[in-house]
From TrEMBL:
Name of a matching Pfam family: SAICAR_synt
Pathway: Purine metabolism; IMP biosynthesis via de novo pathway; 5-amino-1-(5-phospho-D-ribosyl)imidazole-4-carboxamide from 5-amino-1-(5-phospho-D-ribosyl)imidazole-4-carboxylate: step 1/2
Protein name: Phosphoribosylaminoimidazole-succinocarboxamide synthase
GO cellular component: cytoplasm
Originating organism: Podospora fimiseda
Length: 303
């Protein structure tokens, strides 16, 4: 398990909840995905084996699929190959869990798209009849499908703080009117393409979080970060879906439920029991196989 990875041959720019960013040159970065896992914006004391490889390989798969499904889609993905500047030792550390990406200006919001009502959206709806301040149809049940996917952004909190749900109007004030509608339109298009692809493979994408960047040379909105992974999305098995209750999932809802049940929500320094870490990892790898058609081991052998 690799929850802390330090490279000697490239300068580190930043560490996030899961990823470490290293500078390659003026135009590119190396994303290194660790086995760290966070829930409720708190990083667990231990990680999930091979999680970093799952997220990296699945994101690379999605960048390819989505680029084929959405003509003109721009992504930050360059290559799964390690950069030439890495030493042999560093290459081994990041094998299967790193990707070269374009260096872009990042829009400072979490771009969330919801196809089904669950999580914080369900909690708000029960109290107010709204989701992110947007009026919703009456009579929705837990995990109901929305009549159409909705764009529900949130703030992007600093490490250790919590994201806050905001309205599309509030998001527009943060990113600027020039880009707000383009981000919303693109996010809904990417979600719909991804949800259709996943549905054909037995997975419902209930909701997901995207991030976008700006290519300042071309003024293009670019899909960045990870995309449609078990860390950034709620994946439900389609054959078990039933309105009116919590769903089984291929994502970290398993971990969230354990934290909630044990009164550990939002607490720092929590270590998962081994069985929770292993069960979470197994669900991630099962989702990977359903979506890509191959096991993680097969994907890694092909590198």
């Amino acid at each position: 398990m690799s929850t802390a990875i330090e490279l000697e041959s490239l300068p580190k720019l930043a560490s996030g909840k899961v990823r470490d960013l290293y500078n390659i040159d003026d135009k590119s970065l190396l994303f290194v995905t660790t086995d760290r896992i966070s829930a409720y914006d708190v990083i667990m004391a231990n990680g999930v084996p091979l999680k970093g490889a799952v997220l990296t390989q699945l994101s690379a798969h999605w960048f390819k699929v989505l680029s084929e499904k959405i003509p003109g889609l721009k992504t930050h993905f360059i290559s799964l190959n390690p950069p030439a500047a890495l030493s042999d030792g560093d290459k081994e550390k990041v094998r299967g869990r790193s990707m070269q990406v374009r260096k872009l200006k990042v829009f400072p919001i979490e771009v969330i798209v919801r196809g089904y009502i669950t999580g914080s959206a369900w909690n708000e709806y029960k109290k107010e009849g709204t989701v992110h301040g947007l009026a919703m149809p009456a009579g929705l049940q837990q995990c109901s499908r929305f009549p159409q996917p909705i764009y529900t952004p949130s703030t992007k909190a600093e490490l250790g703080k919590h994201d806050e749900n905001i309205s599309p109007e509030q998001a527009a004030k943060i990113v600027g009117d020039k880009y707000a509608s383009r981000i919303e339109e693109l996010a809904l298009k990417v979600y719909s393409a991804g949800a259709e692809y996943a549905a054909e493979r037995g997975i419902i994408i209930a909701d997901t979080k995207f991030e976008f960047g700006l290519d300042e040379e071309t003024d293009d909105i670019v899909l960045i970060d990870e995309v449609l992974t078990p860390d950034s999305s709620r994946f439900w098995p389609a054959d078990e879906y039933e309105v009116g209750r919590d769903q089984n999932s291929f994502d970290k809802q398993f971990l969230r439920n354990w934290l909630t049940d044990n009164g550990l929500k939002y607490k720092d320094g929590v270590a998962m029991p081994e069985k929770i870490a292993e069960a979470t990892g197994a669900r991630y790898r099962e989702a990977f196989k359903k979506l890509t058609g191959k096991t993680l081991e097969e994907a890694l052998e092909a590198l």
